[in-house]
Design brief:
The complex is a heterodimer of chains A (838) and B (359). By secondary structure, chain A is α/β, with parallel strands linked by helices. Chain A has 27 helices and 30 strands. Chain A is globular. Chain B has helices spanning 37-41, 96-102, 113-123, 136-144, 151-155, 179-187, 201-206, 226-235, 246-254, 342-357, and strands at residues 2-7, 12-19, 24-31, 49-53, 57-58, 77-79, 82-83, 106-109, 126-131, 161-163, 169-174, 191-196, 211-214, 241-244, 259-268, 272-275, 281-283, 286-292, 302-308, 314-319, 324-327. The chains are: A alpha/beta (838), B alpha/beta (359).
Chain lengths: 838, 359
Amino acid sequence: MYKKTTKNQHQRLLFLGAGETDFGMQGENDAAIYQVLPILEKQGYQLFLVDDNPYSLALESGQAQTIVATLTVQNVKAIIKEQQIDGVFPGFAGDRGLRLWQQVMAEWREEDGPRPVGLGIPDSTVDLMNDSAALFDRLSLSGLAMPQATIVRSQAEANELLRDLELPLLVRAHHPAQATTRKIVKRLDDFENAVDQVIEQSLTKEVVISKAINGLKEVSLLVLRDAAGNCLQIGASEDMDPVGIHTSDSLTVAPTLTISDQVLQEMRTQAFQVANLLNIQGPVHVQLALDEKTGRLYIIKVSPYLDYLSNRMALLTGYPVMLVAAQLATGRLIQEIELPDSYHEKTAMMEPVMDHIVVKLPVFSFGDLKASGVRVNRQLNSIQKSVGSALGFGRTFIEAMEKAIRAAHFNNRSFSPKYMKKLSDDEMIQQLIHPHDNRVLLLLEALRRGYEIDELAELTKIDGFYFYQLKQLLAIEAHILDGEPSRQLLNKAKSSGLSDGLLARFWDSDFQAIRELAKQAGVVPTYKALEPSAGEFPENAHQFFATFEEENESVPVSNKTILVIGPGAFRMGDGASAGYVTAVVLSELRALGYKTVIMNNNASDASLLPHLSDKQYLEPLEVSDVMSVVDQEQPEAIVVPGNRRKLIEALTALGQKVIVLPKEKHQPMGPEEGESEFALNIFYDGARAFPLVLTQHQSGEIRLIDQDESQVDLSGIRLPYSGVYQLIWREKTRKWLDQVRLPDFGSDTWLRPMPYGQIAFLSKILQLSLIRLVVRSWKGGLDEDDLDALVAHMPALRGADFAMVSNRTDFDLHLKPDQPVDSTRYEMGAKIMRLMED
Amino acid sequence: MERHLILEDGTVFSGQGFGSLATTFGEIIFDTATSGYQETITNPIYDGQMIVFAMPVVGADGIHAEAYESINPKIRGVIVHDLAEVSTNRQRRMNLDRFLKQHNIPGIYEVDTRKLIRHLRETGSQKATIVDVVDDHARDQLQATVLTNKQVQNTATSKAYSNPGRGFHIIVIDFGLKNGILRVLGEYDANVTVLPYTTSVEEVLTLDPDGIILSTGPGNPEDLPESVLTLIHVLQTKVPMLGIGLGHELFALANNSELTTLPAEYHGMNHPIQEIISQEILYARQGRGYVVNPEQLDTKKLFVTHRDLVDNSIQGLRHREYPAFSVQFFPDGAPGPLEAKRIFADFFETVVDYVQKNN
């Protein structure tokens, strides 16, 4: 499968895991590590991974020796020595990895023996990345423009600066302890406060202050560089919103549409220059700002490591960014990269080109929070507020955007068009200038109310192109409202990304009737392959998206296919770990000999990795999208998460065999403050329930109770679907208990599906993959071996000294809630901690 | 208005007309670059051809003054999936639709361009026509059409002109010059004289050049008169020379080597090109229907300096005796990556050498 093998310089390689997920860290790094392990193993490396992220998929990989340990300097040093590690990948853990690796290097003593080599990024660059002033100097000396920055150590020094610098100013921490946060200060009144807050986030109590460049156009480039200095561009995407709104919170589009070739080539040249200056072997993500009035470019951020853009560009272009990045880090040149046979033999060397458009929309959780009474500041600024993102793939901007809206909006109340109509003109202007999460709908409403494109472009600093496009969308909508469902109109509507459901609403019909009409008129999706050569070469592509043209390139995988419906965008609560669950389902189905097809629209987790399934559809997950794929693939069964009740009903009504993966409809509830929630965790194989383990849950933390519950009588339990469940009861106690008095399970407890995050955690601690067992039970109960394994873990209970902690997300920073957010219910991420370590 | 594209092999694609609504004939090729549609459309190398853009949305950046590669585009047709309206920026007064109307160039959009490109990839470049109605008449017209092989005459200047600077005197022999070459020469403050390709050796030498550039251009180099090869053959012995695109192909022909015709032309900017001496990889805009045949390269006279790592084609040649070299790709970008601009730096180094030795 893999061609040549060159001699490996280093042998025993350690991946630093990225740790808990958070704003801007949705599991991309874990997915990247999981993806590259097989190819590195084939190339003869001994691989190790340390992580404390319970949702990690890579930690359950068979291709590396995996170590669950808190990501501390002490632990990493101990592992390096014990396992005789000679190479470490810091960049696969993003900027956290760089910070950790820098600390390990700083605390490495002579008596520790030879220090392993940092792969992909030179030691000096690791230092540079943690010292923004030095980085600024280095880039400026090479003629690259960054907004002028000054470091101050006190409020007094900061005030001094105010005499020289005009507002707005960008204030951020120097040597940040956690992910960098940036504050834009527009009013003098806010300045002191911002400096105060940021100084606390700095390890050295220093603050970097620079001129803010709000309102400029923001573009992100991803480039790869090899040890010989060869650079290639993987892709570029532009933000619809200007600098000043966090790129994660903006609609973004790839490839870039409104940037001229000359400017784009200048950006590319600068990005290559940065990669060369930093001497990177692997990916560099460069964010640039373009001042269209002067033509000046500014480099606003440099990320010489794997981050969300690496995964996203891999999915957008079909270019295997991670597989190439890992090999570049080990020292291979771009001509020496080995790829699986499904790629054209020259794929690694060719810059990918796209013949489709992809729109990314942020997903916010404001609605979910509001539902539980928490009000947050919805105004978008330079601090990320979105918790996830959804992608729309199409052949026009409108199609891609509509599909992204459909992919992002389900369960999101802020996207209601009714809400828009109630907005007064004053509120509208306020929100045009100070954007909220409902950006696209607001722009549409402004156009509906007759605002001119020029004034909107001026107010919002959004390129006129987008308004022309949105206007075109309104025209299409008006056309549909006035028209009859003709073939031509149906084709226009569907190739604009509108769903059968929406058309049904426009035409006072129902989804099924529209679907039939479209079918009769021959308006059926054509699936286009997503591959990196834009049609120049035949590639054995496995990724497809729907559009409405002439040629359908997708051929059904087999007559024994299982279709898996992905979880969509990353959300707070147990959505955070849904990528893990989906990936394990795919992996186990394949192990059982099924052909698998996945539908999803989220680039951040592992579920869409090319090697996990036989085919990937990058689509919204509404009923009409799913039914079209069902028509195309004729699957034997469809696996659907249990919270998608409407979809389950619709598919069942259409005669499909649906396998439900139990999941609660809303966020899992957790204990109130001062209260403990106890759970008897059980496995239900479709006929019988087996007790697993007892857990105690207090706000932000879950522990196992070392108590034998194997004799509990669960014979009365009958459930519709096999899966992992919890029998829940609560008590007013803040003490962690060694023994708990069991309630009467028949009357004093209630039953719910186990939240995905806890499934991921318990699977690791019990060393028993619960999801694999669930999948194996689908063919009609578990076999003897599995039943033995299920029973065998219990007497020798493992893991009572581990806890899952989810209290570290900084909601105050990102969302400014009016009351504390309960991190148990709204977990963004979690950590496995050994209790002795407390 | 619904219009149709008919290929020589009989395949029909339908879409909506834009630009000029005239009937058009040309050789159809495809381009995989995602940026620079205006530069591509105005590049004189596309005289007589129609382009299918793989990039599905074309026109979103409008039309602006810095992006002309020639003032009068010679392209015969533009085929896209989605035609975008433009923004209202001062630099973007014109949109693509109006621009093509103005220059009498037909376009067609809402075409399944990916299907078309996959088809052309297999069946090769061929004649095509854009028409209002698909009937026997249209098909017969297409079959009967003989496409011109006089593209260079049609495109290149017939009169000498200068683009003054205060630096070296560089003569550009025009075979269908694109502006990018003049733009880069301007960056070197070169004193440029552009000459028709019919200029005689004596006339060229009388102007006392410090260096000569054989420009890019359209069509098959073998359709040009023999005198061009003689001109190159003599001039390369006297003055530093750089051939680009068609100029590279002519440079090879003038040095006793032969070309092959590609079954499907390559137009794009994503192939890795390796500089053999340094092993370095660069990316550059390419637009080629012909390449130098490695079997029929006169290796006594020339050696290969660059190769395309995807199809292994020859991308650069250097003369063993004279300060003369050439590249198949476009080192001026416009559109395309700028890393190949170092070819001009190499050229000017050669020029400096020559000037120092001959003063």
